[in-house]
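Form 7-S
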Amino acid sequence: MNNKKMIFLCVVMCVNFFTTNIAYAYENNNCLINGISINKQLININYTKGVEIKPKYIVIHDTDNRAKGANAQANRDFFANHKDAKVSAHYVVDDSNIVQVLEDNWLGWHSGEVRNNKMNNKNSIAIEMCVNEDNDFGKTFENTVELTKHLMKKYHISKENVIRHNDVTGKTCPKMMIVDRPNLWGEFKEQIGQENKTDGNKSSDEISVEEIKNKTEINGKIRNISTLLNIRREANTSREVIDCVENGQNVQVIQHLDNWYKIRYIKDSLEIEGYVRDKYVLCTENYDVNY
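Output:
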C-alpha cells in the first residue's frame, strides 16, 4: 500500500471514530432552570438506541463520587467516553450546571440492576446529583428540585412518581439523602410539591404576591432551604453573594422584582439588604423582624 493510500485511510478512520464516539452537537437550551440554561450534550453510547420511552417516573440518583472535580461535566464525559461503563442518566446536576446527556424519551441505563415491572429504565427519566467535595450540594439540591418540577410539569408526572434509585432496586442511592442527610429526601418531596399548591393550602396569615406588590414593606421568614440560602447583591444567580442565612431567618421584604424579593434583615447587629428568590420567603404580617 502506497503512502497516499495510507494517509487517506488514516483520515477516514479518524473521521469515522469521531463521528461514532463523540456526542451529538452541543446545545444550550433556552429554558432556564433556577437561572441556569440546560446544557444539552447528548452521548452516543451507553443507552438503548432505537427505543423510545414515555416517562412516568423521575428517578433521583447521586454520583457517590466525592472527589474534587467530579462535577456535572466530568460525569457526562464519563458516560460519553467509556463504552464499558454500561450506565447513563438523562441529566447531571451540580451547583452551577445542568447537563442533559440523553433525550427525555431515550432509554437510559440507570436503574436496571434488579427487575422491577412497575418502575424501571423503560418508563423513567434519571437525574444524577453531584456530590464532589468542591461542589455546593445545597445549590445542587435547589437546582435538582427545580429541574424535577420542570419535568413533572412537562410530562404530567405526580409527586408520588418522583422516586429514588433506592425505591426501584434497593440500592443505597442517592446516598447523600439516605446515609449522610436522611432528612433531605422528605424536604425534596415537600419542595417539589409546592409548585402545585393552591390558595386553599395557604396558611391564614400568609400574604399573596399581589398583596406584596401593593405594599412598600412587609415582614417575612426564610423557608424551604436545607442548608444555607445565598443573599445576592443583585437579582441574578450569577451575581455576587454578600451573605448567607438559615431557614427561619426573619426578614423584611422591601421590593418585588419578577420572581425575586429585595429583603432587609439584622445580623450580628448589622443591617443587610440583598436579593433572594421569592419562593424562599414566607410573607406574613405576624413575624417580628426586630426593627
